[in-house]
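Next up, a chain.

===
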Amino acid sequence: MTISRYDVRKLIMNSSPFYSELLKKRDVKFINQYTTPEFSKTAFEEAQDFSYSYHIWTHGDRLYKLANKHYGNSELWWVIALVNSKPTESHFQIGDTVLIPQPLNRVLEAFGV
């Protein structure tokens, strides 16, 4: 079963005048977008009680590779990014310690997934 970060997010139709030029160029009336997730302060407080594996960021590392190695699912890369407060690989530097939260079911539950 695939667990997506989009499973609990609402899909909205964005037809804002701010995007009028973009919409016109694409010959569309609106763009479907997911709402921005909001995580409760409680979820981050619970994160302090998770168990963690540690990984030292090296050349060639990718969040999806770490997720696949530790969770068996590359689509869960966002869990590692969220817990480390680094949304993309470009936010990590060689030598950084990456926290891999465990157990996965508890982590997902804390973040409402």
